[in-house]
Structure formats: structure tokens, C-alpha cells
Prior knowledge:
This protein is an alpha/beta fold.
Amino acid sequence: MAQIESPPRQHQERQPGADDKMTPRPDYAPREEGGYRLLDKVALITGGDSGIGRATAIAFAREGARIALVYLNEENDAEATRGLVEKEGRECLVIPGDVGDPETCKRAVAETLKRYGRIDVLVNNAGEQHPQPSITDIPPEQLERTFRTNVFGYFFMIQATLPHLKEGSSIINIASVTAYKGNPTLVDYSATKGAIVALTRALALQLADKNIRVNAVAPGPIWTPLIPSTFEPEQVERFGKNTPLGRVGQPNEVAPSLVFLACSDASYMTGQVLHPNGGSVVNA
């Protein structure tokens, strides 16, 4: 597994960022041989074209799942992920669209059902962030956009998917270490991630009697295209150095947490949050 203390200086102008423009490229390859923990399951993953979404798609495929992924605008990355899933011997459906639009979410679910006939695992992963030095600098448009993608998109996707989930299904939401530690320049983003934690806990209680488990993963800091498309080169160079492990994490160091939560190994876990964050102790 490739490990880097911190990346070299770089920047991309457009979110969510392009994987093939990153130096070094993130590490997506599963670290274990895999097995049959998700055999014949269908997983719908938002933001599945790169970063944690891509690593999760590949790891799920290695465990036997068929994949549908939703991506915003990075078609090349989405097609690359499709190829990596198919290399694992599993099908992959790619669906373009903005999860902040409820019609996109309905269409993604409909296309997944048309292709595979079922949905067993929903991974809400798509997100965006826009640094501002002060809360007074956050314009209404940014505030709404960040919440629309990071929170509304999760609600919309759950609402579209839930009628088709059955007993034993799993919903996994991607939160962030910022939900627990905060970030002085990502106040609105941190607020959305706190909302995701609360959503996870409340929905887990609501769906417990249906035996549909709802959990979350709160990573950070992880080397994904969102990082160089968010921060200035000097900040990218320092990214991850302040963790106890002293380095940035890789997407394939987060994906195993999602595999665990998606499969029956986690059958007695709901409303919980896992923390692959480089060693930061947070109030879980």
C-alpha cells in the first residue's frame, strides 16, 4: 500500500476534482483478497467515481457486490472506476447527476432497479466543501449549495431508496472528523457533517424494527480529488501532517470500514460511527 506523509503542492480549479490530475494518485486497491461477504448484493454509491467512493466500489466488488455509482461531472473518473470494478469480475452501472436534485436520486434508483432488480446497500458519499476564513464570509449561495449536496442529497437518496430496501439492508453515510473536531475554515461543511451524524442516529432508531441498519463512517484526512480542488497548494502540502500517525490517509484505508458495515459482520451495529482518521480521539 502506498503511504505518503503529505502530498506535494498542487491545486485543481473545479470540484469535485479529477483523479488523473493528482500527484501522487490515491491508492484504491483493496488490501485483502476478499471473499463472499457481499455476494450478489447490489450497492448504490454516490460520489462513486473517485476517492472514498471509488475505493468502496472496488472493495464491495471484490466481496461479490454489483455496483451502481452516481457521479457529478467527472466522466473519465467514473469510467475508470467502472473498469476497476469490472476487473474484479462484477458489473458496474454509472449514472451522472447532481444528488442535490431529488429527481436525480429518483432516476438513479430507477436505473439501478432496472439493471439489477434490487438494492441492498446505499452509500451516501457525495460531498463538497468551500473554505472561508470567517462565517461572515459564507454567502447564502454557498451555504445552501453545501447543505444541498451534503445533507439534502443524503435525504433525497434515502427517500428514493428506502421503499426498495428489505430486511437486512444497510445504509452507510459518510460523515467526517470535522463533525467532531470542527474546522475553522470549513464551518458550513463541518455543520453538514454534524447533521449527517444526527441523521444516522435518528434514522437508525426509525428503521430498527425493519432490521435496516444505518451507520456512518467519519474519515479524515484522506487523499482524494476533493482535497486539491478545495485547498491552496501550501495547504495541500501540509494535509494530514497533524494526525497522530503523521500522514494523510488513503481511500483504501477507509473502504474496509464500509465493507464491514455493509455486510452481516456488522449485524448488531446500527446508529454507530466508525473513525478511520489517523488516530484522532473523538467523542463518538
